[in-house]
User: Which sequence fits this backbone?
């Protein structure tokens, strides 16, 4: 009886020791998925990717700095910065951005010769696997240079004794202007300056066009050329047309 009892105790002790030393089951053996640690990576962020420069004169040059941040855990490497057109040169301060650091992309946009709404894009390529290309945008409205109101002076049919004068304005929608010179294509087209429009702060100038009495009948066509001090769009050309009707013949 003692022999059987001793044998049972030894068998139980051996089983407990073997269970304690056996390795734990792998995820594949117990039906679970293997969990791996996340791979550190950079994260490119621009707090304000769109810059609206508002309404500007075509004589201006827009300049802006975009802030680029790295909110990841390894260095952000910027491979290239490209604009959608050659009119928008770019400059990158640093192409390696450590975690928590930032750099700047400087953009310059020459507005000369452009009109209306403008939208330009800048592409920033980096080693961020989630956002390999970050898109920046530059947008706004370019106002034209000085213009004539009305754009053309058309008298239409001018009967004998009717007025041969018409008023027109030279206007700037952005910066004050000065009138440097006024010429007409024919000596019978006479332009008289009436100066700045009151309270216009140099934005509007008044003129009067008169067809000389020496022209009695027939079709009149020509143009007025007004030169201003606007740096890029300084010359305004205004077409002129009229049909003069001769006075009726006497009895």
Assistant:
């Amino acid at each position: 009886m003692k022999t059987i009892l001793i044998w049972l105790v030894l068998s139980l002790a051996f089983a407990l020791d073997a269970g304690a030393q056996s390795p734990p089951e792998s995820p594949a053996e117990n039906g679970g998925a293997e969990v791996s640690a996340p791979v550190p990576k950079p994260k490119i962020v621009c707090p304000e990717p769109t810059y609206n420069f508002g309404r500007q004169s075509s004589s201006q040059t827009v300049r802006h700095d975009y802030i680029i941040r790295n909110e990841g855990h390894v260095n952000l490497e910027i491979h290239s910065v490209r604009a959608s057109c050659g009119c928008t040169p770019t400059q990158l301060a640093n192409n390696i951005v450590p975690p928590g650091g930032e750099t700047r992309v400087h953009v310059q946009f020459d507005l000369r010769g452009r009109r209306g709404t403008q939208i330009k894009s800048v592409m920033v390529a980096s080693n961020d696997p989630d956002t390999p290309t970050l898109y920046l945008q530059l947008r706004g409205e370019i106002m034209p240079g000085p213009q004539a109101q009305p754009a053309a002076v058309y008298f239409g049919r001018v009967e004998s004794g009717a007025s041969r004068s018409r008023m027109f304005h030279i206007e700037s929608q952005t910066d004050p202007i000065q009138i440097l010179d006024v010429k007409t294509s024919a000596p019978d087209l006479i332009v008289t300056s009436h100066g700045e429009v009151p309270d216009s702060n140099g934005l509007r100038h008044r003129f009067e066009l008169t067809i000389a009495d020496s022209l009695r009948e027939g079709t009149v066509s020509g143009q007025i050329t007004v030169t201003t001090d606007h740096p890029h769009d300084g010359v305004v050309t205004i077409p002129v047309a009229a049909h003069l009707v001769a006075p009726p013949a006497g009895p």
